[in-house]
Amino acid sequence: xxxxxxxxxxxxxxxxxxxxxxxxxxxxxxxxxxxxxxxxxxxxxxxxxxxxxxxxxxxxxxxxxxxxxxxxxxxxxxxxxxxxxxxxxxxxxxxxxxxxxxxxxxxxxxxxxxxxxxxxxxxxxxxxxxxxxxxxxxxxxxxxxxxxxxxxxxxxxxxxxxxxxxxxxxxxxxxxxxxxxxxx
Length: 184
Hints:
Blueprint: E1 4-9, E2 26-27, E3 30-31, H1 41-45, H2 50-57, E4 65-66, E5 75-81, E6 87-94, H3 106-126, E7 128-132, E8 138-146, E9 149-158, E10 161-167, H4 170-183
Parallel strand pairs: 1-6
Antiparallel strand pairs: 1-10, 2-3, 4-5, 5-6, 7-8, 8-9, 9-10
């Protein structure tokens, strides 16, 4: 099994917090007095446990750890590789128009919505997309082949952050992304 969870957030500055809770809520993309709280790198990797991954993926996975393949300076990558060659990874992308410890601004929310819509358009042009309901403000699952392996990519927009999961099936992706959404 090959899987990846992607949490994309346009809601932080270089002043990261080690808090792992979020009281953010929004209505039609508007902040309702919430404060952005971004987990530190290690805390982010611990949002999903080995038990969580194993139950959702249907195979044994160890605790996710900080990935050495982390890309940009404003990105946190975590991964878990099982003994059968399966990989689950998840990422937090931190934008520069949202600030840790502050309420999300209209620009922060607008930028995040624009990024979601861009990703949706790209996924629609590269594969099959199914719009999902009852997950965040907006959500979809895109299916496509990656290096010859069929994959499902779930992306959920929820106010100042986006959660995504890349797994074998949309059902697994929805479960992983939904769990991250609840824990951010």
